[in-house]
Amino acid sequence: MPWFGELPERWDSSRIKNLFMLRDERNFKPLSEVRLMSLYTAIGVKPHDEIERVAGNVAVTANNYKKVFVNDIIVNIILCWMGAIGISKHDGVTSPAYDVYRAVSDEVNADYYNYLFRTPYFSGECYKAGRGIMAMRWRTYSDQFTAIPVPLPPRAEQDQIARYLDWKVSGINRLINAKKKQIVLLGEQKQAVINEAVTRGGDGWEDISLGNLGSFRKGFGGSRADDSADGVACIRYGDIYRTGALSLTQPITRINILASPSYARVYRSEMLFALSGETKEEIGQSLINNIDEDTWSSGDAAIFAANSRILPQFLVFALRCPDVVKQRASVAKGDIIVHISTSALRRLRIFAPPISEQQEIATYLSNQCERIDKVIEVLTLEINLFAEYRTRLISDVVTGKLDVRDVVVPEYKAVEETADVFEGDTEEVEVDENNVE
Q1: Which of 288, 408, 416, 419 has minimal CB crowding within 10 Å?
Q2: For the chain, how long is the longest CA-to-CA vector?
Q3: What is the per-residue pLDDT across 370-418, written as a single tens digit (0 to 9) for each?
Q4: What are phi and psi of 374, to 5 degrees?
Q5: C-alpha dihedral over 80, 82, 88, 92, to 10 degrees?
Q6: Positive or negative CA dihedral for 377, 271, 226, 98?
Q7: What's the pTM value of the predicted model, to 2 decimals?
C-alpha cells in the first residue's frame, strides 16, 4: 500500500469507511450542563476544563455542538494533515466543524487507530487526500478522509499493540516530563536572578516612567502571505511574546523584499514590544533587535528607541520583573485576544540605576542567563530526541514493522506528557459551522 508499506502476511488492510462511521448527533443543552472537548495537534482530545490555557476561540454556547462519547475519534478537517486527530476518553460535546467517528464493529480497537492516525505518515495521507488553495484553507472532508487505506491487524493484535504502546509511551513521557520540570525550575531560577539584580535599589536609583527613557513608534504592515524563506529579516509581534527571548540575533521570520516598503523599519539595538497576545501576562513583552542585517517590523508591535538615560541591555531585564509584569497586565484590554497601547507602555514605571551600574548589571545578568540557557538548550535537545524516538516507535509498531505480540506488558502507571499547547502549535481551531465550505 502507498503509505504504510508492506504489511505482515497475517494482517489485512481496509479503507477507513469500512471501519468507522461518521456520527452527527447534536447537543441542545446549555454549556453549563455539558463537557466541552477540545482538540489539539500536540495532545489530542482533552476536556476543556483540564486545559489551563486555552488557545483559539472560546465557546460561549454548546447549542448545536456535536455529541462525543468515549472512544469516539474526533477529526479537525482543516488541521488533520498536521495531526489534529484524537480519541475522546470522556462523554461531551465538540465543535460542530469537527467530524466525529465511531468504530463500526468490535473488530476495531479505536485506541490502536488513534495511535495510527496521529503518525506523521498518516498526516501526509490526509494532506494528499485533501484540497484547498493554500495551507490555511486546506481541508480533508469526510469522503476524502474515509477513503484512505489503513492497516487492519487482527483484533487481538490491535489490543496488544495498544497495550504495548500505552506502556512504552508512558515510560518515554515520564522521562520527558522530568526534563520539562528541570527546565521550569531553571526558568524560575533565572527569573529570581533577574528580579534580585534589577530591584535591589541603592544610591542613584530612580523611579521613572518608560516614556521618559525613549520614544515609541508603531510597527505597521504585515501579512503571512509576504513570508519568504529567502527574504529579508522581519520581526512579527508573535515572534516577541512566543519566544520569550531577550534579544534576536537571527530572524524567525523573513518576508519578500518587494513587500518590505509596506513594513516599519527597525534598527539594530532598538527594542520591540508586542501590542497583542493571548494572555495579560504575555502582553507587552519586549526584546532587543540585535539582527545584523536590515530588519523590518509588522503591525501590532511597538518600536522603542532608548535615549541616553537607559541601556536597552538593562531595560530588557528590568521589564521582566514581576512588578512591571503586573503593571502591564493591569492596563491590558481584552480576553480572547489581549491588547496594550503605546500610551499604556509609556506609563510603565521601572527602577533605573546610573548608566555605569546599568552596564554592570546587564553584563552580570547576560552571563548568568547564558549559563542557565545552555543547560536548558541541552535538556530541550534531549526532549526532542525522546519525542523523535517515541514517534518512530509508534510508527513501526502500528504498521507491523516491529512485532510486539509476545511482549509481556508489566504493571505500570499511565503517564501523559505535560504539554504546553502554545509552543508554536496551531492547536485548537474552533470554526463556525456556517463558514465551513
Answers
A1: 408
A2: 81
A3: 999 999 999 999 999 999 999 999 999 999 999 999 999 999 999 988 8
A4: -65, -40
A5: -70
A6: positive
A7: 0.81
pLDDT tens-digit profile of 144-158? 999 999 999 999 999
Total count of residues recorded for the chain = 437
- Please give the backbone phi and psi of residue 99, each rounded to the nearest 5 degrees, phi first: -95, 140
- Confirm whether 337 is domain-assigned: yes
Residues 211, 171: one domain? no
Could you give the dihedral angle defined by the CA atoms of residues 312, 287, 176 and 179, in that order, rounded to the nearest 10 degrees?
Answer: 10
DSSP H or E segment with residue 238:
helix 237-243
pLDDT of residue 282: 79
Residues 262-279 as b/e (b if ≥16 CB within 10 A, e otherwise) read: ebbebeeebbbbbbbbbe
What string of DSSP letters covers 78-141? Answer: TTGGGT-EEE-SS-EEE-TTEEEEEESSTT--HHHHHHHHTSHHHHHHHHHH-B-SSGGG-B--
Amino acid letter for position 74: I
User: 223-230 — which CB contacts under 8 Å span 24+ positions?
Assistant: 223/259, 224/136, 226/255, 226/256, 226/259, 227/253, 227/254, 227/255, 227/256, 228/254, 228/255, 228/256, 228/257, 229/254, 230/254
User: Cα(first)–Cα(last) distance of the chain, in Å?
Assistant: 30
Which 8-state DSSP code applies to residue 321?
S
Are 286 and 264 spatial neighbours (Cβ–Cβ below 8 Å)?
A: no
Compute the distance between CA of residue 327 and CA of residue 241 in angstroms, rounded to an integer: 17
Please report, for the domain that includes residue 312, its CATH number.
3.90.220.20
- What are the cell numbers at 59? 465557546
Which residue, 357, 350, 322, 321, is CA-closest to 208? Answer: 350
CB atoms < 10 A from the CB of 238, how many?
Answer: 18
Residue 426 in contact with residue 41, Cβ under 8 Å? yes
Asked whether 152 and 399 are in contact (CB, 8 A), the reply is: no
Burial track 98-131 (b if 16+ CB lie within 10 A, e otherwise): bbbbbbeeeebbbbbbbbbbbbeebbebbbebbe
How far, CA to CA in Å, does 172 sit from each of 113, 120, 160?
20, 18, 18
Same domain, 26 and 172: yes
